[in-house]
Structure formats: C-alpha cells, structure tokens
Please model this.
Amino acid sequence: MTDYPESAARFARDTASHEMTVLHDDGLYRHLKFMTPGHGSIGSFQLITWPYNLVVKTGWTFHFDVDATPDMFDLFRRTALTGEINPGYWGEKVRAGRDEVEGYDPDLLKKEIASTIAQWMRDDLDSRVAKQAKTLGFSPMELYTRPSLHKELTRQVRSEWRAANRELREAVHEHFFSDFADYNVEYESEAHRALHDFSFRPEGDDSTWPYSFSDWHEWPIKDFTPGFLHSCHAIRHGIDLYDAARKAVAA
Model:
C-alpha cells in the first residue's frame, strides 16, 4: 500500500482513460506520451529516456540521472512494486527539478505543534503533582512508589492543570491559527517567524522560563510535493503500460 493514498487515488482518477502513444522507441531511446483521447493535453504526461537518464513531463518536469543504470525503466521497476512508487529513493536521483521534490506542509507544522503542546502539558502535570507532594510533606520516593498516592495527588491538581492546558492551547491557537493572527502559517517563512516569536506564560505561572518553541528548526515540516508524487505515479504507471503493450505484441 502506498504511503500517499490521496495522491495515488487522485492520479488514478486523472489517468483512468489514458492511452499510450509511442513517439520513439529504439532500445534505450524512448519517447512515450500518455493521454486521454479527445481531452487534448489535459492530464497528459510524457516519459523520455536515453542511457542513464529519464525525464518525466507532467506539468512538472523532473530529470533523473543514475550513472550505474543504463536503462532507467529497469531502475524504476526494481525499486517499487507494480502500481506503487518509491519517492524517497527516487527523489535522491533527481538532477534537474530538485527544488520541486520537497516542500513545506502546514499540516506537518500543526502536527508538530500539537505534539509539543501535549509534551508540555504532560511535563506540567508531573511538575504540579511533585509540587503538591512536597507541599503535603511526601518525599519523591513515596510519590513514585505509591501509585495510590500519585493518583490522589493527580486528582487534586487536575482542575488547575486543565485550566492551564486550556489557556495554553488558546494562546497557541490565537498566535498561529486564528483569523486575527499576525502570521500566515500557510507559508514556510511566516511559520518560521511565528515559531520564533511565540512566548507565553500562563497567569500565575512562576517558572523560570515561559513556554516557547526551542527546537523547531529540527521539525520535519516538509514532505514530497504533490507535483513530485504525481510525477512518480506517472513514471510507474507509464512503465506498467509500456510493459503491458510490449507483452501483448510479443504474444
């Protein structure tokens, strides 16, 4: 199963009626065009190969170059199952069009922010429980060796913790995602600026440091672009159609 089912489903819909036209086929020199008859160039794509090279044109253009593989169709056959793609490995082989292989994904940003908030709140709950234990005269050893004590202290601080949780989440939402936010995090540069600028201290918080995102430069907020995924599907699908046509002729 593909790791990008939406991309696969969209490509399958767009190319369901495609037919292959062979513009050139001489050994490793190929020029193949795939399109739906009567639809002009809408949704069409082309595959062009020569020794050690393959170019796919789908509206986006990517040039793959592998010194060790004269027949590039063999490379793509060997590195993905029929009907599937391998964008991680294939992306490493792109020589021209590299800037279009990966791009910023706002959904990944939201996922990382949500994960960070969840960790902050787990840490905050632990801190509140430990502080309550100290206030009541329990040692750290007692806290972590007596589950019933830990459960009771957690119950005692949960109301304040939930209020703090809600306050923090509202602050994050207002800063990043509200209609009145100063940043448009649909754009990578704006997302970086918003992450850099965020600082929040809940009411009554007496900790040394406010909440801030310190390691966001390391977050995986990029993924393969729709154009590159579409082109990967085009390569795999085009090769499958080409192989089926050759098999039919041979039979």
Notes: The radius of gyration is 27 Å.
